[in-house]
């Protein structure tokens, strides 16, 4: 049997899809019992030099792909909300199954698109939308479906992990490493969505919705990016036996769901601390399976192409058996969301203070008034009469920390609060 594919977008991922399909054509054909052929590709730039070739139509006319009656599967790898959303709806209405890598779209319009796929009796798969080549969507939807998932903790943005790793390990500058990540095809078209945490927040909304069977909207996710992380913070983190990562955290507790993306200090012994460079990892805890961890390349042409081809192969099998297996909306619960003030973590606080007697004692008192105690303290001289202090608290409520920081800001011996970073200790993870 021959199954024909149309691709929307021939950029980093589009080229990866073509390459993976071509380089493993024989195995893919044997495993699916069918011949998967790319028939047409849409891109607005028909002239750009690309490292791929093949016997397909390259067109700038969407209808030439979307309305070709021979095409069975549409792969959307253009990115953005529109026209990608309209094109996917159009493809489904024209009887085609769809594979997309578009987390922007799935995080916000996933429900609508899954409903449309259901109504059309077609599949909609999105494995590449989270963790690039890591099979995490299939794991949550299928392999871990017998569990009540309690925790999903992840490093799910390759660009920021690449940047933080190079800053920490090679002492390199932020801007230079970001440019390198863009050139390697890891960053989004607008890299601010990587560095501001939005890309990870979109992925976390998708993961949390699947893990907890309750819709987590993008706007439900607390987001903070990496732009305030300095080389000093990375050096102090190393001194504390830790590292700094952009962490995505989703927890299902008795009080409700907690979903947050922010830089986090992690002890080097934490399972996620050794995930470096463009690699992603997702740590998932289920009540039956216990701890699991999924690791791999979270971005890049071939890893993302790998996830997309695996979705295409699932659809090819469904087409042959005349079925659809897309598990449409999995959100049958409506769990409450925890308020940010109820998040419970330890904190790293870096301050510049006057180097005078009783300053540290007063700081301890101000935190104690909010019921917060310190786990460790580092102090370094800065000039003749100033000192830099790094305080690491024991875990506390975020609301209590804000109260303490308000008092600290008002204390005249404190010259500046230079950074406050959440500290994810191993004992908080379960
Ligand atoms: N890069 C990665 O590692 C990963 C990316 N993704 C996701 O995959 C998708 C694609 O990403 P990526 O390949 O990196 O992006 P690119 O920008 O490299 O590729 C997108 C391609 O689609 C073209 N395009 C965009 N809009 C249109 C349109 N309306 N009509 C015709 N062509 C269009 C672009 O043209 P032009 O260049 O002119 O804009 C470009 O050639 C995104 O949703 C991204 O979030 C997911 C996982 C990993
Ligand atoms: N920009 C993203 C690409 C994959 O989703 C990342 O850096 O992880
Ligand atoms: Na994936």
Would you summarize the structure shown here?
The chain is α/β, with parallel strands linked by helices. The chain is 37% helix and 28% strand. The mean pLDDT is 95.
Describe this structure in words.
- The structure is a single chain.
- The protein folds into 3 domains: about 1-130 and about 300-320, 3-Layer(aba) Sandwich (Rossmann fold), CATH 3.40.50.720; about 140-295, Dihydrodipicolinate Reductase, domain 2 (2-Layer Sandwich); about 340-430, 2-Layer Sandwich (Alpha-Beta Plaits).
- Strands 7, 8, 9, 10, 11, 12, 13, 14, 15, 16 and 17 form an 11-stranded mixed sheet that branches. Strands 3-2-1-4-5-6 form a 6-stranded parallel sheet, with helices on both faces.
- It has helices at about 10-25, 25-30, 60-65, 85-95, 105-120, 135-145, 160-170, 175-185, 190-195, 200-210, 230-240, 300-320, 360-370, 400-410, and strands at about 1-10, 35-40, 55-60, 70-75, 95-100, 125, 150-155, 220-225, 240-255, 255-265, 280-285, 290-295, 345-355, 375-380, 385-395, 395, 415-425.
- With about 425 residues, the protein is of the alpha/beta class.
- Bound molecules: NADPH dihydro-nicotinamide-adenine-dinucleotide phosphate, ligand LTNE7NMQ and sodium ion (NA).
CATH architecture of the largest domain: 2-Layer Sandwich
Number of strands: 17
Terminal CA distance reads 48 Å
**Count of distinct structural domains:** 3
Task: Assess the beta-strand content as a share of residues.
Answer: 25-35%
Task: State mean pLDDT (0 to 100 scale).
Answer: 95
Instruction: Let me know the CATH homologous superfamily of the largest domain.
Output: Dihydrodipicolinate Reductase, domain 2
Rg, rounded, reads: 24 Å
Number of helices: 14
Structural class: alpha/beta
CATH secondary-structure class of the largest domain: Alpha Beta
The CATH topology annotation of the largest domain reads as: Dihydrodipicolinate Reductase, domain 2
Ligand catalogue? NADPH dihydro-nicotinamide-adenine-dinucleotide phosphate, the ligand N[C@@H](CC=O)C(=O)O, sodium ion
Helix content: 25-40%
Main beta-sheet strand count, sense and barrel state: 11 strands, mixed
Stretches where pLDDT is under 50 for at least 5 consecutive residues are none
Enzyme class: oxidoreductase
Catalytic activity: L-homoserine + NADP(+) = L-aspartate 4-semialdehyde + NADPH + H(+)
Keywords: Amino-acid biosynthesis, Metal-binding, Methionine biosynthesis, NAD, NADP, Oxidoreductase, Sodium, Threonine biosynthesis
Pfam family, one: Homoserine_dh
């Amino acid at each position: 049997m021959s199954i024909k594919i149309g691709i929307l977008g021939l950029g980093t991922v589009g080229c990866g899809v073509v390459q993976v399909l071509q380089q493993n054509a024989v195995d893919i054909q044997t495993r699916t019992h069918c011949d998967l052929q790319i028939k047409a590709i849409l891109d607005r730039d028909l002239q750009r030099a690309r490292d791929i070739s093949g016997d397909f139509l390259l067109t700038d006319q969407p209808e030439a792909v979307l309305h070709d009656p021979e095409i069975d599967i549409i792969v959307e790898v253009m990115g953005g909300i529109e026209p990608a959303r309209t094109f996917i709806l159009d493809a489904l209405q024209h009887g085609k199954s769809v594979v997309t890598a578009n987390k922007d779209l799935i995080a916000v319009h996933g429900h609508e698109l899954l409903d449309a796929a259901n109504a059309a009796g077609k599949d909609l798969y999105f494995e590449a939308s989270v963790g690039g080549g890591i099979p995490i969507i299939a794991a949550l939807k299928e392999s871990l479906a017998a569990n009540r998932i309690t925790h999903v903790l992840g490093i799910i943005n390759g660009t920021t992990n690449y940047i933080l790793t190079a800053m920490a390990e090679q002492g390199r500058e932020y801007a230079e490493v970001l440019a390198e990540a863009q050139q390697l095809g890891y960053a989004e078209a607008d890299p601010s969505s990587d560095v501001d945490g939005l890309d990870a927040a979109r992925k976390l909304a998708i993961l949390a919705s699947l893990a907890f069977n309750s819709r987590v909207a993008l706007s439900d996710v607390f987001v903070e990016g990496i732009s305030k992380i300095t080389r000093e913070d990375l050096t102090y983190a190393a001194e504390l036996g830790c590292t700094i990562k952009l962490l995505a955290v989703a927890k299902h507790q008795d009080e409700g769901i907690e979903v947050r993306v922010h830089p986090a200090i992690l002890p080097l012994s934490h399972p996620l601390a050794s995930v470096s460079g463009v690699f992603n990892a997702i740590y998932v805890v289920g009540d039956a399976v216990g701890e699991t961890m999924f690791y791999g390349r979270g971005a890049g042409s071939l890893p993302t192409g790998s996830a997309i081809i695996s979705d295409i192969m699932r659809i090819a099998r469904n087409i042959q058996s005349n079925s659809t297996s897309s598990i449409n909306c999995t959100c049958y619960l409506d769990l409450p969301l925890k308020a940010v003030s109820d998040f419970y973590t330890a904190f790293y606080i870096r301050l510049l203070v006057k180097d005078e007697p009783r300053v540290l004692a007063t700081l301890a008192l101000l935190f104690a008034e909010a019921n917060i105690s310190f786990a460790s303290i580092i102090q370094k001289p800065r000039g003749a009469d100033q000192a830099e202090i790094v305080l690491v608290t024991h875990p506390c409520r975020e609301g209590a920390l804000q109260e303490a920081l308000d008092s600290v800001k008002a204390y005249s011996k404190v010259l500046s609060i230079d950074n406050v970073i959440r500290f994810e200790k191993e004992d908080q993870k379960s």
